[in-house]
Amino acid sequence: MSRRVLAALVLALGAAPAVWTATTQAPKPPGPLAIQRVKGDLYVISGEGGNVAAYVTGEGVVLVDDMFDRNHDDILAKVRSVTDQPIRYVLNTHQHDDHAGGDFKMLPIAEVIAHKNVRANLVARRQPFYEDTPGTPIGLPRVTFSDETSVYLGGKEVRAKYFGRGHTNGDAVILFPEVGVIHTGDLFLGRRAPAPGSPAASRPPGVNIFVDYAQGGSFIDWSKTLEGVLTLDFDTIIPGHGPISRKADLIAFTRDLEAMRSRVAGLVKAGRTKDEIVSVLETDYGWRAKGCPPSPPTPGCLQFQQVDALIAELRNARDPDARSR
After folding, report:
1. Is this model's pTM higher than 0.85 or not?
2. Which domains does the chain have, with CATH numbers?
3. Helix, strand, coil in percent for the chain, rounding step 5
């Protein structure tokens, strides 16, 4: 091989990692968003990331969550389509970037509020940390709370409550008392009835959730947390993802979560292997495992990538079938 050819090959190989990095880190284009009225002056913006609530008052707008960083301009446009009032506050339900990825761009125009564990998780960046587009700047909330806080704007209240661990250790539920609506973040996911005859229609009771153990989540505590949520005065739910739901949907979701956890805990206590447990989660509950790498964090694979922690929590619990005391 000539020196000239060898030199060209070395240069090409040396450039390959940079090309791969640029390709894999390239910003994703934002997806289309839609806005609809929920009740009164409360709207929901949906489309790509988690559902965003927009509460319009005579003194400004309160948002709950703000999707990905790339959705920022489109969210502002959707808000402007229903009011000329500025965004004054953003309340985070938790720190995942499909819900709080827009915080960095919101901070110059609004106050961002979250549970204290949300900020701690963002600072610590415990792995695996889910980022849809790694390298996107993180906006740290400037205001945090422990158990409860409220924002009063234009004569309306927006209340944030913390009931305990579930999806993460910083899940806040946001109550709009005037209209009887809550935003649950990913503690609750809106579900549509499966088509008759589809595989989903024949599955046992369960929920397609993600327990983020790296961010303090708990499969055992989750239903106890939802029981706290059910003590609030509401009839309508803006879920973390999925369609607008009713209180009865949350009751059914809680029941199905407990049924699934009881079954999986039974498999763990019976000494079933990880592969056997994963097969049940995938076949009966819609979790994805096939084709999933063990790392790094991969969209669609996060449940599988933390299944070791899930099995460990159930194995080490004194009474995994009961809710924590």
Report:
1. yes
2. 34-259 (3.60.15.10)
3. 35, 20, 45
